[in-house]
Design goal:
By secondary structure, the chain is an alpha/beta fold. It is built from 16 helices and 17 strands.
Length: 504
């Protein structure tokens, strides 16, 4: 080494030494008093905030969850096998956040944003807190834009609007998740970003859901936040908040987003587990007293923003599982009172072959016709009432063989309405096709078709209109209402089809 090089290196070292400044930093530090079952009791963190991230040894982290007089209850977000009493705990001064951005589309992540699909972590710069205050009234506007599910019974009788909170409720295994998946599939090429949050589900069920979304090309516009049953209760508790934060990013960017919480019953179980481990007082059904606040602060974040604040929306479809159809249980009644309506799936209808098994008497959308286009309101006005009357009459008619003509006509029409509303979960219908079919049946064009032939008749009618009179469907889609000329053209087309269908 030459003397000149040595002098340059010495000068550089001296410069670095002169520029170095030792800054004293005060940190809130404590120690573990007790650890186990995914929680830790920590002493000494006098300035920690609720929801603040704390750091354990070996780069593991927790969340300050319970602030007591002499200790802090922390839920552990990683493995706790290496933690022991006396270990040092440091407050970080940061609240829990999740990274957000369009790069998450098509990905599967955990509630902390870590990828679960064996792909590299997405490059994200923006982040949002998992917990945030719901948008105020000044930033909102009334729900008025339909969120088409592709399900005839829902779009016609229990419409969902963008920015609404519509509960899907029913017993285990009768199509709640299938209804939500159909809605996600139907958003393909509609500009709606979908977030599916799997809470406490089997890993095999989540894998099957992913395969289904991929099969129908719906994974490209969907983000999956997975907290399966094998994960700690802490991650199951955080999952719906992480999904909502991601949805808020898209809504704040002026886009429309849909989030499905599948399901909030298991979310309540996870919260109860954490609360009891932290020795919070239990109340009804062993849930802590703030269980209502748990879901209300989550679902209130669903919003339709006004144009001054971006004009985006976040629609929430929470799912609740009932036991033996008991809608009066604690968690179901809580969530029913929070949401803007519910779709109740009834076991008796499901086992009778009605798909989806929607009980129209107990299902309601408090947004109603505001979330429908005018053409759908025109044809579906009497549909709900006619179907409810049919199911009431059908229950009594089975005990009698002598029915008056009016009752027989009501039963015949109701049977045909019930038949056309039966639909496979993997066959979403465009809204103009739904309008065509409901109009044809409610206008009496199917009265002469035998009931057992209705499924075949509706499929062939749909194919005929698409091939021979597709301009009618385009007119309905563009006008969004049925004017006299359109009704006359529909009458002519359906009458002609019936003549062809009636030929051997």
């Amino acid at each position: 080494m030459t003397r000149a090089s040595f002098n340059q290196i010495s000068a550089r070292i001296a410069q670095e030494i002169n520029q170095f400044k030792l800054v004293a930093e005060a940190r809130d530090v404590g120690e573990i008093l007790q650890v186990g079952d995914g929680i830790a009791l920590v002493s000494g963190l006098s300035d920690v905030a609720l929801g603040e991230i704390v750091e354990f040894p070996q780069d593991s982290f927790g969340l300050a969850f319970n602030l007591a007089r002499n200790s802090v209850g922390v839920i552990i977000l990683d493995s706790s096998a290496h933690l022991k009493e006396g270990d040092t705990v440091k407050a970080t001064g940061h609240l829990l956040q999740v990274k957000v951005g369009p790069q998450l589309l098509g990905r599967v992540i955990d509630p902390l944003g870590h990828p679960l699909d064996n792909k590299p972590a997405p490059s994200l710069t923006a982040s949002l807190p998992l917990e945030s205050v719901a948008p105020g009234v000044i930033t909102r506007e009334p729900v008025s834009t339909p969120l088409q599910t592709g399900i005839k019974a829902v779009d016609a009788m229990i419409p969902i609007g963008r920015g609404q909170r519509e509960l899907i409720i029913g017993d285990r295994g009768i199509g709640k998740s299938a209804l939500a998946l159909t809605t996600i599939i139907n958003q393909k090429q509609r500009g709606v970003v979908c977030i599916y949050v799997a809470i406490g589900q089997k890993a095999s069920f989540i894998a099957q859901t992913l395969a289904t979304l991929d099969q129908f090309g719906a994974l490209d516009h969907t983000i999956v936040v997975a907290a399966p049953a094998s994960t700690p209760a802490a991650l199951q508790y955080l999952a719906p908040y992480a999904g909502t934060a991601i949805g808020e990013y898209f809504a704040g960017s002026g886009q429309d987003a849909l989030i499905v919480h599948d399901d909030l019953t298991k979310h309540a179980w996870a919260y109860r587990e954490l609360s009891l481990l932290l020795r919070r007082p239990s109340g009804r059904e062993a849930y802590p007293g703030d269980i209502f606040y748990l879901h209300s602060r989550l679902l209130e974040r669903a919003v339709k923003l006004n144009p001054k604040h971006g004009g985006g929306s976040l629609t929430a479809l929470p799912i609740i599982e009932t036991q033996a159809g008991d809608l009066s249980a604690y968690i179901p009644t809580n969530v029913i009172s929070i949401t803007d309506g519910q779709i109740y799936l009834e076991p008796d209808l499901f086992y009778a072959g009605v798909r989806p098994a929607i009980n129209v008497g107990l299902s309601v959308s408090r947004v109603g016709g505001s979330a429908q286009i005018k053409a759908m309101k025109q044809v579906a006005g009497k549909l709900r009432l006619d179907l409810a009357q049919y199911r009431e009459l059908a229950a009594f008619a089975q005990f009698s063989t002598d029915l008056d003509p009016a009752t027989r006509a009501t039963l015949d029409r109701g049977g045909r309405l019930s038949a056309i509303l039966t639909q496979n979960w993997d066959d979403p219908w465009p809204v103009e096709d739904q309008i065509l079919l409901i109009w044809a049946v409610t206008s009496g064009h199917a009265d002469q078709i035998p009931l057992d032939q209705i499924p075949d008749w509706q499929d062939k009618l749909r194919t005929y209109i698409h091939t021979q009179a597709e301009d009618l469907l385009l007119t309905i889609a563009s006008d969004k209402q049925l004017v006299k000329s359109t009704i006359a053209a529909l009458t002519k087309a359906v009458t002609k089809f019936n003549l062809i269908y009636g030929q051997p």
